[in-house]
Amino acid sequence: MSDRPRVAVFRPNDERIESAIETLESIGATAVPDPMLEIEPTDAVPESGAKFVILTSKTGVELVSAAGWEPTTETLCCIGPKTAAACEAAGWTVDLVPDTYTSRGLVSLLVDRVSGQTVEVARSDHGSPVLTDGLSDAGALVHETILYRLTRPASAGRSVELAATNELDGAAFTSSLTVEHFIEAAVERGIKDEALAGLDHAVVGAIGPPTAETAAALDIDVDIVPTEATFDRLATAVVDRINERNI
Questions:
Q1: 112, 159: one domain
Q2: Which of 39, 104, 130, 168 has the most CB atoms less than 10 A away?
């Protein structure tokens, strides 16, 4: 192992992986970029006429903005500050952002507001049912529009091979799907047990409770879940824990 801890990151191969690399480098780590998500737009836009519109990612905002969609009289809700910032960059006013940047946080924010109201949820094909089910249980009339599909790039798997040879100090999982794709890549290579063993020796971070739950279901022990669901907090928590172990 080098003096700088090696931390795998799995964000899509665009400015997000570049930002993740910069963040890790700035806090004294060496990033191991291994994009586990590829975005396939559907060219859909949110349905009109809803009282509330929920957008759950920067990607979704950029896609619908490029397609010419914009909010009118709807109450515009975003899952977190990065999604909200993308909306504001598009010239839109964001009305509601939860304190906890998760599907559960959105449900908690809206549960007393949506009974009998139409709610449009515009997101990827792997959105958590926690959001749509929670809003339906609160009495909302929920419609979901799939803006893009998330697939695993053919090139994904470098981190799996490094984990299997015990060459990773940390891993920063940013969604349940990145966890699932990591395991799929390990199975394809016939090194699932070795990769899991490598993660056991590393510090594993999950960006939020749903990601941590997926990891646990797939036999990955999670060491860190940051109090705020942002990559910066996740990366810092993972690197801090690695450094603590090395003292």
A1: no
A2: 168
Is the same domain home to 237 and 138? no
Q: If you average pLDDT over residues 227-234, what whole number do you get?
A: 92
Whole-number pLDDT of residue 1? 42
Coil, strand or helix at 29: coil
Q: 141-151 and 38-41 as β-strands: parallel, antiparallel, unpaired?
A: antiparallel
Per DSSP, 145 falls in state E
- Supply φ then ψ for residue 86, to 5 degrees: -65, -40
Residue 20, in any domain of the structure: yes
Let me know whether 145 and 177 are in one domain.
Answer: no
Looking at the structure, do residues 117 and 176 belong to the same domain, yes or no?
no
Return the number of other C-beta atoms located less than 10 Å from residue 94's C-beta: 19
Q: Which domain holds residue 204?
A: 6-37+153-246
- In this structure, the number of other CB atoms found within 10 A of the CB of residue 243 comes to 15
Locate 94 and state its tokens: 């964001």
CA atoms of 234 and 147, how far apart (whole Å): 26
pTM more than 0.70: yes
